[in-house]
Amino acid sequence: MLGDDEDVFDSVTWESPTGPNYGFEEAAPTGPGFRQSTVAESEGPHDPKWEGYLITSVKDPVKELAETKDAYVSYLVQAKTNLPIFSTPTPSSRRRFQDFVFLRENLVRDFPACVVPALPDKHRLEYITGDRFSPEFMERRRLDLHRFLQRVSRHPTLQRSTLVRAFFESTEWHVHMHQHIAHPPGPEPSPGIIDNISDTLLNAFARVRKPDERFLAMREHVDKFEEGLVVSERLYNRVRGRTSVSEAKRDGNPESGEDLTADYHDLAVAVQGLGFLESGITDPLNHFSNTLLEFSALLRHTAQTTTDPLLVHLHSLLTYSHANRAVLKLRDQKQLDFEELSDYLSGVTAERDRLAAVISGHAGSTGLGLSAYLKDRVDAIRGADDDRSRVEKMRKLDIKIKELQDAVTTAHETSDAFSDETLREQAIFQYAKEAEMKEMLSNFADGQIEFYKAAMEEWERIIPVIQRIRVDV
Question: Which parts of the sequence belong to the PX domain (predicted)?
Answer without folding.
Answer: 53-175
